[in-house]
Amino acid sequence: MAWFRSLIQVSAAARSATKPRISDPFSYTLLSRFSSEPAPIHETPDPQPPTQYSGLGPTKPGEKPRVVVLGTGWAGCRLMKGLDTDIYDVVCVSPRNHMVFTPLLASTCVGTLEFRSVAEPIGRIQPAISREPGSYFFLSNCVGLDPDKHLVQCETVTDGAEPLKPWKFEISYDKLVIALGAKPTTFGIQGVEEHAIFLREVYHAQEIRRKLLLNLMLSDVPGVSEEEKSRLLHCVVVGGGPTGVEFSGELSDFIPERDVRQRYSHVKNYIHVTLIEANEILSSFDDRLRHYATKQLTKSGVRLVRGIVKDVKAQKIILNDGTEVPYGLLVWSTGVGPSPLVNSLPLSKAPGGRVGVDEWLRVPSVQDVYSIGDCSGFVESTGKPTLPALAQVAERQGKYLANLLNKIGKAGGGRANGAKEYKYEDPFVYKHLGSMATLGRYKALVDLRQSKDGKGLALAGFTSWFIWRSAYLTRVLSWRNRFYVAINWATTFVFGRDITRI
Amino acid sequence: MAWFRSLIQVSAAARSATKPRISDPFSYTLLSRFSSEPAPIHETPDPQPPTQYSGLGPTKPGEKPRVVVLGTGWAGCRLMKGLDTDIYDVVCVSPRNHMVFTPLLASTCVGTLEFRSVAEPIGRIQPAISREPGSYFFLSNCVGLDPDKHLVQCETVTDGAEPLKPWKFEISYDKLVIALGAKPTTFGIQGVEEHAIFLREVYHAQEIRRKLLLNLMLSDVPGVSEEEKSRLLHCVVVGGGPTGVEFSGELSDFIPERDVRQRYSHVKNYIHVTLIEANEILSSFDDRLRHYATKQLTKSGVRLVRGIVKDVKAQKIILNDGTEVPYGLLVWSTGVGPSPLVNSLPLSKAPGGRVGVDEWLRVPSVQDVYSIGDCSGFVESTGKPTLPALAQVAERQGKYLANLLNKIGKAGGGRANGAKEYKYEDPFVYKHLGSMATLGRYKALVDLRQSKDGKGLALAGFTSWFIWRSAYLTRVLSWRNRFYVAINWATTFVFGRDITRI
User: Fold this and answer.
1) A interface mutation test: which of B28, B136, B233 has the most A CBs within 10 A?
2) What does the DSSP assignment read for B348-411?
3) Cα angle vertex A452, ends A447, A453, to 5°?
4) Hey, which residues does A458 pair with through a beta bridge?
5) Which domains are delineated in chain B?
């Protein structure tokens, strides 16, 4: 029990006395055996790291070169999955220790899927992070970058759980991959951050679920006016992209759900879903599919409103013609833009404020810095268009960059400034594999055309729904979660959705 | 789409224009079609219930008599399950819309079980609450009681999620069952409420899990001192009852867990569990079992300390001899006492401040009020001892009272003041079926003796662990959760525990 003694700073005298006597398990350590001198550690009420800005120094000749990955989204995780850990040590910095399987996130809000089924721990994506002494995951935010010194500054996430100031530390990189993703756009509309819920993280889905069930139950209480019932049970989704549409679909599925119909029979006629979009829903999809989607959603009771939101208040949104739409739940999914950190990075920018990269996803004019996913875009000089902020793009870029870095490593260019001579060959080319979206009620869209005007298969209906489910089931990363997603779907089918509010 | 029109208060002119044209699904309603008069509902910024103190009035001759149940713990849920809904309408008031299967709660903290697997929605326990027009569940707190008027006052739980003041309403009862449970005792020790986590609700388990994983990750960050690592990874459990012991067991299971050993190989030697108990652990168990438990826990690295906590600070507890024990996670399970509401109720009291009941679980000197579970105890005049605060007791009382109320109902005594003439026969007698506790590592205790000194089977080891699991698996209420618990156990066995921090 040395650890415990050292922990509570037992005096030399006491130490001799506290030899554990397992033989007699009832011999609890008597208090008298502990010294009660306050231990040094307690002299400072909230401990600081002994050395500010300690961290991981530059890698030495004997060690593997170090790839530092910022972010745990589709891009970063696919990259880490593909990196050859015989060549590189992997260090990941992110405020999230798991990847969210975003295409299935909407399903978790209404209990079709469990939250945990759509979250994949990093260590399961790249086991080296758990095993290799030189590989780490840090639950931290990147707060600064010094490309000349090959250095990133980080700050721990303390979650408010501890009376600790966040600790700063630095990490030297041989290669840096910026995969910080993007943040939801609010178009500077008042009150969005405050009153609307986004749908990008698991905790968003949890918040939506809690609110949905709270409102259901509040509206069931005696003395609630008709208007208030309608408001509480009015779910408004702003943004008609795949996320907005899929969430509306899931919601419209949830409402006629036997659990809800039964448990809230008193209020079921007040529950409604409105989808507000400034232009067309699913604008990236084939016209016939869009047409089909619109019909399906309308049929399942989703009200499609073309409008522009001007202002968001606690219980109503105001459209730009002054119409007031009361809501009980407001979900915001109007696309994404660069995060403040990305804006602040001392790097070349692409149109739209993204981190600028060349055909090989390198950030020009600095050494050993790459950027992938929603936070990056081609610099104008490449003449290439900015790619859409899709999981598909991020995943493809992560895969490409992993291979590129592995090649560079094999060619002996893994160290900082070691790839200057490296001959970059085939650049990154994005080939769109098509889009999918579910509409609820066992209906979905599958658009396999490579561009909006291109030719190719465009399916709608149950078949697509089946393809949608199978496709995602096979793309879920670990067998554990694949198993759980299947189980969740099965039990939802057999027992109905789970409406426990925990 | 009438609901939508009424919702946004469309003017007569506009109404004619907004006839939905499903035939042309692309015809979104143009904004101009909506009137922009502010709707009356919005004139008051945060709506109040139109009639304060509206609610459910006394039941009329045509209707079923109404049983109002306060609480959704073991007692209340078992009662509701047993009530004959052909005789009674059931109205349940609780801040929680589900029952927590407390014996398995400790397992959820470390990812052996999912949170949802141990939570059972009320509507699945008593389907009438979902179906019968006269039966309700209200997500509310009971705030007052008027036994003479047969009336309870309630207040909605708003969860801080809405800028709404909680709504007050009243419910008239024919029969009232007080099953409000108890609250954890802190013995007035400073800082417990603030810094320690209890283990009674699902959100407690979630908080413990988040904190455990946060500390694991924080301790892995460069620049953290040895002392700080030891502190962050020192889990202290206060209270050596079954809950405390089971949680310590689960924790000591979690630590050598391959996931943890691997992912946190850098810090695994700092992780430790200390169980602090003023007297003996598992005092209600057979000596040999206690002996066995002590040996097992010590073997799996749990430090047993006999001590009394004097003060709780943010990062250390101080024992009453002045010893300071730094901690990263502090779990408090030193038994329970009556809640402030129970204390405030205008009813006769039993020793220990519980609601006093007679042999038939009736509250004396008032009509039609019963009390069961941790919140109730026999009045002294009965000469019966206060029963321990166990799920077993609560469940037995719930079952007994359900039968009693059903009999009274059948005999036509269901209405308020209707049971005055009823002949109360066989009183409630508690027969202890024995105790179980798991120690982790596939070890458990099963004590089938009926009293501390009685004769009977007392088992320890794997067999008991197997009995423990089977017993609880069969006692889990719904097939859905039974299924999920089994699946969770299987996957934990195959894939290891899940350490995603969501």
Assistant:
1) B28
2) -B-GGGPEEE-TTSBPTTSSSEEE-GGGEEE-GGG-PPPPP--HHHHHHHHHHHHHHHHHHHHT
3) 115
4) A447
5) 66-182+338-411 (3.50.50.100), 197-337+433-495 (3.50.50.100)
**Under 8 Å between Cβ of A236 and A248:** no
A&B contacts, CB < 8 Å: 344
pLDDT of residue A112: 81
pLDDT digits (tens, 9 = 90+) for B58-89: 999 989 999 999 999 999 999 999 999 999 99
* Surface-to-core class of residue A141, CB atoms within 10 Å of its CB (0-12 exposed, 13-18 middle, 19+ buried): middle
Query: Do B418 and B65 contact (CB within 8 A), yes or no?
Result: yes
| CA atoms lying within 13 Å on the CB side of residue B307 | 27
**How many Å apart are CA A175 and CA A402, to the nearest integer?**
11
Q: What angle do CA A296, A331, A215 make, to 5 degrees?
A: 95
Mutate which of A27, A151, A218, A477 to disrupt the B interface (most B C-beta within 10 Å)?
Answer: A218
- pLDDT tens digits for A324-355? 999 999 999 998 888 999 999 999 999 889 99
Contact B500 A158 (CB under 8 A): no
Contacts of B327 in chain A (CB under 8 A): none
d(CA B455, CA B447): 10
Nearest residue to B405 (alpha-carbon basis) of B89, B117, B132: B89
- The sign of the CA dihedral A240, A243, A248, A249 is positive
Chain B residues with CB-CB distance to A326 below 8 A: 7-8, 39, 41-42
pLDDT at A38 over 50: no
In A71-117, beta strands by DSSP E: 89-94, 98-100
Give A35's contacts (C-beta < 8 A, 6+ positions apart): A9, A10, A11, A13, A14, B323
Chain A nearest C-alpha distance from B260 (Å)? 9
Cβ(B220)–Cβ(B228) below 8 Å = no
Q: Which residues of B touch A314 (CB under 8 A)?
A: 45-46, 162-163
**pTM given for the model:** 0.82
Q: CB distance B116–A1 less than 8 Å?
A: no
Q: How far is CA A487 from CA A163, B466, B480, in A?
A: 40, 25, 11
Separate counts of helices (H) and strands (E) for chain A: 16, 24
Whole-number Å distance between alpha carbons of B491 and A485:
13
Contact B176, B150 (CB under 8 A): yes
Q: Quote the minimal CA–CA distance from A337 to chain B in Å.
A: 24
- Provide the token pair at B135: 């039966």
Of A45, A46, A98, the CB nearest to B501: A98
| Residues in contact with A448: Cβ distance below 8 Å, sequence separation at least 6, in sequence order | A433, A434, A456, A457, A458, A459
For residue A365, the distance in angstroms to the closest alpha carbon of chain B comes to 30
Tell me how far apart the alpha carbons of residues A125 and A118 are, in angstroms, rounded to a whole number: 13
Q: What is the pLDDT of residue B274?
A: 95
**How does pLDDT run across B430-454, given as a tens digit for each residue?**
988 778 888 777 777 887 776 666 6
Strands (E), B185-248: 234-238
Beta-carbon separation of B123 and A499 below 8 A: yes
Residue keyed to tokens 């790619």:
A387
Chain position carrying tokens 């709504």: B167
Measured N-to-C along each axis, helices B462-475 and B479-495 cross at an angle, to the nearest 10 degrees, of 140
ipTM: 0.79
Nearest CB to A49 within list B139, B202, B225: B225
**List of chain A residues whose C-beta atoms are within 8 Å of the C-beta of residue B195:** none
CB A370 within 8 A of CB A178: yes
8 A C-beta contact, residue B108 and residue B202: yes
Interface probe, candidates A6, A28, A491, chain B, greatest B C-beta count within 10 A:
A28
